[in-house]
Write a structure and sequence with these properties.
By secondary structure, the chain is α+β, with helices and mostly antiparallel strands. The protein has 5 helices and 5 strands. 45% of the residues lie in helices and 21% in strands.
Amino acid sequence: MSSKTVLLCKHCGNEAPHVLKYTHQYKEIIYTNDGEEYPMDAWYYVVVCETCDNVSLYGTWELSDVPSDLTQATLLYPARTELPDIVPKTVRETYKEASRISKLAPNAFAVQIRRALEFICAEHKLSKGSLQDKLTRLSESGIIPPKLAQLADAIRLLGNIGAHADSTIVTRDDVRYLDDFFRAVIEYVYIAPEKLEKLSESLKKRKEKQNLPNGN
């Protein structure tokens, strides 16, 4: 394996060479459906970004096409920031782009998060009026509760600050709040409803199973 691999650093947002500092090989125990244990070779890789000097941890195992290829390994630390597939692609891609520049360009991050809010409104057929008006209509229609509407409006305001050429800037603390607020909106609008639907389906199946005649 090469001692350096160009990877996207989730700490600084740069595509940069990462130096391999440590490799740990171990046996991952996989359990089959019938309860049998199957030992499988697996690896942890500790790498350091040459741009920001921060550490990342990757993992892979023997079933990978090329276990030693870090570009195909799973990033374990820092945590991935991508949104799940249940979130519309326009929102996911905008957030992904924003996450890459969050530490490099806080103002641009705020603008991108504001843009992601615009896409959420568009996905709910709200295309006319200001973003503030659209967020109000999202709240009035029950898509987001009033408290989340206030958070969304805070995102809008910080996005405006990031877009204007004046002395007011978006700080790194603002970025953390923005990210938390935005993900709270995403959780309520997309992720929680899907979880609730899956839970309802599971409960329905359990109830049907309990009502089966004896012997089934």
